Amino acid sequence: MNQELDQRATIIRVYEEQFAQSLASSVIQKPRLTVWMFLVPILFIYHANQIKRFKENLNNFQQGFTRTKLHALNLAREELASGQRKQEKEMDLFADYHVDGPNVQEVRNRQLDEVRLLIRHYKGLLSRSGRDYPELVRAAYKTRHDFKKFLQKLGQAEMEVSRAALKAFHDADTDESRRVVSEMERHAAILRNEEAESIFNV
Description:
Oligomer: single chain
């Protein structure tokens, strides 16, 4: 049983990492290469540095986006393996941070909501048989409509976390941060809609 759980958890983890990679590529703007880069060597060096930063930003975005997902996936797998539900403290990604205040508490509350939603989702997938992610989704949700309802709830939960974080951490509340959050929400909705159509188009 644990081996099957591990195999399904790996399928889901790979999916989440690939989704985050696709989303990052849609949201993070890649520096454009122009003819001037080749004519003026210093510009090419500048471009190379910008590409390096672009790749670092992609990696940071992917890690940040998947952090809650992979945390919830591990908790869901452990719950199924042990038969015991996790305590709220184990779900809280901020549990080890000594930061406080009403705005930070709101981030924690919204993130806990997202983790709870994801645990239910992942337990549904981990409890089904399937050779790949689409098969697990079809087994868990049965219809495109039901899966899309979950995706809408997930998008809403992510949006509430982002909004709370921007409000809590004033240094992060910049025009660029708001642009990235808005683009993230828009592209995630597009990618997930395409995903639902593809998974149930069989």
